[in-house]
Amino acid sequence: MSRHTTPSADRAENAARDSASDVLVPSRRQYLDLKAQHPDAILLYRLGDFYETFDEDARMLARDARIALTSRSFGRSGRAPMAGIPHHALNHYLGRLLAAGHTVAIAEQMTPPGRGLVERAVTRVLSPGTVSDPALLPAGENRYLAAVGRRGDCWG
Prior knowledge:
There is one protein chain. The protein has helices at 7-19, 26-37, 55-65, 90-99, and strands at residues 42-47, 50-54, 70-73, 79-86, 104-109, 120-126, 150-151, 154-155. It is α+β, with helices and mostly antiparallel strands. It has a single domain (7-139), classed as DNA repair protein MutS, domain I (MutS, DNA mismatch repair protein, domain I, 3-Layer(aba) Sandwich). The strands form two sheets. Strands 3-4-2-1-5-6 form a six-stranded mixed β-sheet, with helices on both faces. A two-stranded antiparallel ribbon has the order 7-8. A hairpin with a 2-residue loop joins β7 and β8. The protein is globular, with a radius of gyration of 18 Å. The relative contact order is 0.14.
């Protein structure tokens, strides 16, 4: 699958991240760290009752899910493009993103909200070729899965 950004845009984003790393708020640093683990996916980052995404992912989410693109301040590290969806509408918007050919990584809150940074981790990565949830599959379309195994000289 092709990258969502150009190499020069990636270099610029990485340079901006590196130069601003000392001023990044913890949630922004956490988002960028998770995004670095899934560079070819749109990262949906759970923040309370919403899944939010930033930067180029926000632009793609806004365009392909047909939602508003806005921005969010991250203190001294500046503003970033942002788009978000309500958590209860996740499957609806996942369907749109998968239909547009995107891979999506979903980062959930792993600890309850409280003081300090909430721990988050990517719990699912979905792509048009790997989705198996009937709620996300287009009605009337077949999805085929093949598996090949080898034991010694035998294939099956």
